[in-house]
Amino acid sequence: MPAATTASVLHQVPIDLGDRSYPISIGTGLLDDPATWSGVPQASRALIVTNTTVAPLYAARLQKTLEGRHRAVDIVALPDGEEHKNWQTLNLIFDALLQNESDRKTVIYALGGGVVGDMAGFAASSYMRGVPFVQVPTTLLAQVDSSVGGKTAINHPLGKNMIGAFYQPRLVVCDLETLTTLPAREFSAGLAEVIKYGPIADMGLLDWLEVNIDRLAARETDALAHAVRRSCEIKAWVVGQDERDAGLRAILNFGHTFGHAIEAGLGYGQWLHGEGVGCGMVMALHLSRRLGLIESKFVERVTALLRKAGLPVVGPALGADRYLELMRVDKKAEAGEIKFVVIDRPGSAAVRAAPDAMVREVIDLCCRPA
Ligand code: NAD
Ligand code: GLY
Fold it and tell me: Could you tell me the fold of the domain covering 195-368?
């Protein structure tokens, strides 16, 4: 894609966390504009952490812009894919930092999707006990969710995102133009996390999505800007009250308990994270209905929107025993009891346990062999 000639900040969303506060800039042409980066701490060195898919698309452009700000800007391109979100790949970031003689002021820029962002953030949290980092999310999912709020992690073969840290970026830059090169399947996966914010927090967003889903799918700039801004505002509202995930923040995991089981059960990289979350939301909605919290009509309404967004709404037939085994490794589980994010009324979510028999019924209803 040609470099943009003019940059435009369409929205700024503040994340209010006291001395860890930072802005999210949402706009077009931001990668190429030196003004975008003016709030980043002064440092002679910077490292752009990206992957082998995103590097040829955007790394040189970002490097060129940042060279006006840092004396040396290095790039490390990690192997692409959720299956590489592990210790071995994390170590490539530390190798690059040490080989480049990076000091404790070195700024790490995470240029890519949630996998790159989570790993670069974790590396930033621990290199020399913490260096500044900036999130430059290039997938829809990362712009509306993973780049915001400071959760960083890698996977363990026994559980997703099990090893990590809370570590806030200094700035998040969502350049909507990067979304034009995103494959359709990845774009749909990102829509799952946008849709998520409706049932848990904002029925106005759900109404808007139902009307505008085709404009979003066509990646119209004003539709994207609205979806990213509203998602970031809701995430900022939640994270501002519960940065360390002690209570309210759990609602952001709507659909994730079932979704993580799908991802882990099939093997990371088979279903995309957002696909697991989308289907997981359908399952969590059925559970909410069985718990007597919502009506079937609402389950059908959200399911129809997910389907329209191009997401799978039928889960893989892993078997109820396997689902339950995988869900017991979830971070919300307490003493082996699985906790689910349920919808307690449209636009509001809560965390609840549910009888195994009811969860089995939901799995049997929602999952089929491929
Ligand atoms: P991803 O990082 O794997 O990116 C998806 C694919 O798109 C990759 O192949 C990537 O190389 C490619 N890509 C990225 N930007 C592109 C662009 N502009 N053009 C073309 N291709 C591009 O996946 P994701 O969906 O962004 O993120 C999923 C990850 O985020 C999971 O590991 C999940 O656990 C994590 N996550 C973290 C949080 C959090 O709060 N930290 C929240 C949600 C999800
Ligand atoms: N995506 C879940 C969270 O940030 O808490």
Answer: Dehydroquinate synthase-like, alpha domain (1.20.1090)
Ligand 2 is surrounded, with C-beta below 6 A, by 145, 149, 151, 245, 249, 252-253
How far away, in angstroms, is 354 Cα from ligand 1 center? 31
- Whole-number Å distance, alpha carbon 325 to ligand 1 midpoint, is 26
DSSP state of 243: T
8-182 topology per CATH: Rossmann fold (3.40.50)
Q: What is the dihedral of CA 163, 165, 170, 176, to 10 degrees?
A: 40
Domain ranges of the chain: 8-182, 195-368
pLDDT digits (tens), the chain, 370 positions: 444 458 899 999 999 999 999 999 999 999 999 999 999 999 999 999 999 999 999 999 999 999 999 999 999 999 999 889 999 999 999 999 999 999 999 999 999 999 999 999 999 999 999 999 999 999 999 999 999 999 999 998 877 888 999 999 999 999 999 999 999 999 999 999 999 999 999 999 999 999 999 999 999 999 999 999 999 999 999 999 999 999 999 999 999 999 999 998 998 789 999 999 999 999 999 999 999 999 999 999 999 999 999 999 999 999 999 999 999 887 777 778 899 999 999 999 999 999 999 999 999 999 998 7
Assess contact for 280 and 271: CB atoms under 8 A.
Answer: no
Instruction: State how far the Cα of 287 lies from the Cα of 343, in Å rounded to an integer.
Output: 9
232 lines ligand 1 (CB under 6 A): no
Q: Cα separation of 26 and 17, whole Å?
A: 19
